[in-house]
Each structure stands twice: as C-alpha cells, then as structure tokens.
Amino acid sequence: MSTAKRDTYTPDTLLSVAVRVFNERGYDGTSMEHLSQAAGISKSSIYHHVRGKEELLRRGISRALDGLFGVLDEEGACEGRAVDRLEHVTRRTVEVLMAELPYVTLLLRVRGNTDTEIWAMDRRREFDQRVAELVKRAAADGDLRADVDARLATRLLFGMINSIAEWYRPERASSNGKGPSATSAEVSEAVVRTAFAGLRTTTT
Amino acid sequence: MSTAKRDTYTPDTLLSVAVRVFNERGYDGTSMEHLSQAAGISKSSIYHHVRGKEELLRRGISRALDGLFGVLDEEGACEGRAVDRLEHVTRRTVEVLMAELPYVTLLLRVRGNTDTEIWAMDRRREFDQRVAELVKRAAADGDLRADVDARLATRLLFGMINSIAEWYRPERASSNGKGPSATSAEVSEAVVRTAFAGLRTTTT
C-alpha cells in the first residue's frame, strides 16, 4: 500500500504493537488486518517477521513466562525459610507484572483452544503450582497460619497480585497528573505487608 | 419454530439463562439469536418478556448491585468501629459474590459504551468508593496499618475478593468429586483472616 510506513520494525517492536492490539481486542478478535493497521505496515511485511498471529501470541506469552519463572530461580526464591522465599517470590512477581504489564496481562487473559493457548495455560498453572508448594512448605514449617487452607491462601495471594493488571497504568505512575502514582516498589511492598502481616494494627 | 420449547419462562429463569450466555460469550458477542437458542424458545417469545438484550443486562446487573449495596445497609456495616464494619463488609461481599456468582461475574466483566454498561460501571465505582471511605476511616482511627496507602489497600482487598469469581464453581463445592470444596463461609473467613491479620504467624 502506498500509505504504509516503511517497515522499520524489529521483532521486539512489532511484538509490542501486536500485544497491545491483542489486549485491546482479545486474541480471537484480532486479525492480521488489525495488526497491519496498528503497525502501519502491510500484512506481507508482518509475514516477513513472523509466520502469523499465533507466533506473536507465543512470543508475547514467552516474555511474560520468562520473567515470572526467572523469579523462581533467584537466590531469594531458593535459599532460606520457605516463608521468606514465598515473600520474595510475591514481591518479585508483582514487580515483574508491573514491568512487563502488557505481556503478563496477555498471559492472564488467555483462555483458548489453540496449541499456544493450551501451552500458555499449562505453564501458568505450573507457575501457580510452584508457588503453591512454597505455601505448603511454609505452612508445614508453622510460619503460615494453620486456619487458612494452603490452596485457598495461594489463590487469594494470586488474586491480589493479578488484580494489579486491572488498574495499574505505568504512564500515570510516571506523570505528575491527577492519577494514582504508586510505584512498583510501593505496590509490591503493600502486597507483601497486606498478605503476610495483615492490614489491621489491632486484633480482636 | 416447531422445535422450540413451550415458553414456560418466568422473568427470573429467563434472566438466569441470559446471564449464563453473556458470561460465556461476552455481552457484545451475544445476539438475540444466541439467547433464543440457549433458552430453547423463539425470539418473539423472549420479546414477550423483555424489550431486548440490554434490558436483560440491566436486570442481571441490578441483581448483583442489590446484593452488594444491601451489605452496606446491614447493621454490621453501619454500627461500631470502622475497622469492624470494614471486616463485616468484606466477609459479606465475599458471601454475596459466591451466592450470586453469575450476576456478580457479569457486573465485574462489564466494559462498554451502552447506557446500561456506563451505569453499571458507575454503580460499581460507587460501591468501591463506599468501601474506600471505610478503609480511610479505619486508618484514621489507627486500626489499619499506616504504611499501606488506603487507596492501594482498597484495591488489593477488592483484588482478592473479586478474583474468587475466577475460580469458584458452586457445583464443585456441593459435590463429593475431586474438585475443591471450599464453602462460602470458609472462603469469606479466609479472605478476612488473610487481609486483616495476614498469613504469617511470625513477623520478621
């Protein structure tokens, strides 16, 4: 097309456009035509970079998973008491979610039947499972309260963490506008304090 | 149609079918034809009950909102220290979410531009705002930790509560199958304990 931009995309910049469109329209609702319009390059230029939209989905989700699974290999996640490792993983998961927001949002929204979507859901479940094991170990050490089931505690913890993707907008955090300006460190600290120490100063 | 069921729907039973379809397909993705197929009655029979799908959306969301705002009028939400009222509202919001799961799920997923969707988002924001005021009052009383911002605390609390809609399936709770069998009382108690007292038994 004569109106198309010259294709100056790298794999990473094209991926970032595609992930934005997937999050806006849903993966199923996104066609190669939508991607072409959003990127301002022709469909054949996109096919020069990738085989199709499923490859873009897989690469977007891989980026989220690499960040999340990377947390589990950090020293703080591998050494020390289980409860401290769990706190480290909680804090760092929040930080990765906020740093890689569009990619983690894409991962959290995947619900589908293509091979890539099934793989993404399996990997997400695997991550949750690894954290659930830490919760169980910390409970067995007597460091987590015994009157909240470990499985339920894991779900509530992820509920709190994943919900950040619903409201956190990095462009507002860095501006001096009227919006909320919570930084990644403030949010991750708030999650750790709330989940592990609780909001109350006094107990009944 | 000769294959159509005789229309034995009441407004409530038709609503329950419509809300299930909205949650499966998304409101935008649902046509009157889909509703007709799911209910097994003709479109004209549906029009006998309601003016169209937006009326069904409004009624489904009203049911969720009636439950949620009802909590704010309960004695436990109106009397006593703000922190205890906040705990009551948290516990009861979880219970209403679980009892009215499809309707609250519909409310939580609304993102749109029709009058009904804008109204639903406004009312949801109003509910969140009422709870945020309780959080602020409890913080001012010195009953909530000062090192977590009240606005952030409200968001994390709702993150934990609303995430229950993602995994709770009542049919599994009542069966003796392999699935999780957490009851409404167990889940609401777990949320209150986690959010207000924290998961840790020991503090660092």
Automatic annotation (TrEMBL), chains A, B:
Q: Cite the entry's keywords alphabetically.
A: DNA-binding, Transcription, Transcription regulation
Determine if Ribosomal protein is one of this entry's keywords.
no
Q: Where is the HTH tetR-type domain?
A: 8-68
Which positions does the record tag as DNA-binding? Answer: 31-50
Would the keyword Membrane be found if you checked this record's keyword annotation?
no
Top-level taxon: Bacteria
Q: Which residues form the signal peptide?
A: none
Matching entries from InterPro entries are given as:
Homeodomain-like_sf, HTH-type_TetR-like_transc_reg, HTH_TetR, KstR2_TetR_C, Tet_transcr_reg_TetR-rel_C_sf
From the Swiss-Prot or TrEMBL record, give the protein name: TetR/AcrR family transcriptional regulator
